[in-house]
Amino acid sequence: MNFDHLIFIGRFQPFHLGHEFVVKEALKRAKTVILLIGSANSPRTIKNPFTFDEREAMILSAFDEQTASRIVCLPIDDTLYNDHKWLQNIGSAVRFITQDAGKTGVIGHTKDDSSYYLSLFPAWDYVELPSFENLSATPLRRAYFGESTLKDGTSLYDKLPKSSQDFLEKFKNTSEFTQLQTEYQHIKACQNAWQAAPYPPTFITADALIVQSGHILLIERGGDYGKGLWAMAGGFLDADETLLHCAIRETYEETGLKIDKKNLKAVQTFDAPDRSLRGRTITSVFYFELDGKTLPQVQGDDDAKRAFWLPLAELDGTKMFEDHYSIITKMLGL
């Protein structure tokens, strides 16, 4: 074996035969294989339907007990707008296992995101592998939630190890699967509505990040998309308004709170291409700091099931809509 530790970074949503191929190759080359499982702090969505614990179980159950004992799975949180924090999380997780001892490397293939790690971790050697049947988890999730078969006519289960097949069959009987399937249909309907457009549409939204006395104003979403998740007040820009007016209007419609422009402290644009599953969406976030010790009364309305003030210490990425947790931590420096 050439390595003491080989690192494989991915989301494994779900763990498929391509992932299994990489892990088996890593086991031939290293004493210990470290799987860094991304999006560990994300809520259940079509993109990230399974928890860290569920993915870890899928992975370890694909191997016999002795082999699985050489595989270590660690959760890695998303930090969409803070690459330095992500790098720190990766480094800390690996150091926790390796204790900076022995030879460590990264394994993957250059046609996926793992090639990006070469420039980020120059101290680690890179083991390049060929792509396994060009497998991607995205079409597998589409088949699971709505389309049953893949484009080549084969079954989703043909691309999965037995452990993943068994888990996905059981998961179909949960309320979480039903909600995700509904969300998938909502997303497809949104995308189909714009299929005839001459160019792919770009949507413009505005959100309000409002803080007072160590609390942040949030809503609980009530529609099919992101139902039950926490979000900043906000929405789509009307044709006759500015972005600032949109943020103020949406806050009033969803929470009943009237904001004074004098409390505006900062504005920032967030435009990660995949930040919304419905389509390319660019948002401007307006950060307001309110005065006073008594929190204003708020009440959910419009498409907000409820509005509430949350202590900043209780922010939880697993409950937040889209990239709102990353936006909030970025703008507040948390």
From TrEMBL:
<dbReference type="GO" id="GO:0016787">
    <property type="term" value="F:hydrolase activity"/>
</dbReference>
<dbReference type="InterPro" id="IPR000086">
    <property type="entry name" value="NUDIX_hydrolase_dom"/>
</dbReference>
<dbReference type="Pfam" id="PF00293">
    <property type="entry name" value="NUDIX"/>
</dbReference>
<keyword id="KW-0808">Transferase</keyword>
<keyword id="KW-0378">Hydrolase</keyword>
<dbReference type="InterPro" id="IPR004821">
    <property type="entry name" value="Cyt_trans-like"/>
</dbReference>
<dbReference type="InterPro" id="IPR014729">
    <property type="entry name" value="Rossmann-like_a/b/a_fold"/>
</dbReference>
<feature type="domain" description="Nudix hydrolase">
    <location>
        <begin position="201"/>
        <end position="331"/>
    </location>
</feature>
<dbReference type="InterPro" id="IPR020084">
    <property type="entry name" value="NUDIX_hydrolase_CS"/>
</dbReference>
<dbReference type="InterPro" id="IPR015797">
    <property type="entry name" value="NUDIX_hydrolase-like_dom_sf"/>
</dbReference>
<protein>
    <submittedName>
        <fullName>Bifunctional NMN adenylyltransferase/Nudix hydrolase</fullName>
    </submittedName>
</protein>
<dbReference type="Pfam" id="PF01467">
    <property type="entry name" value="CTP_transf_like"/>
</dbReference>
<keyword id="KW-0548">Nucleotidyltransferase</keyword>
<dbReference type="GO" id="GO:0016779">
    <property type="term" value="F:nucleotidyltransferase activity"/>
</dbReference>
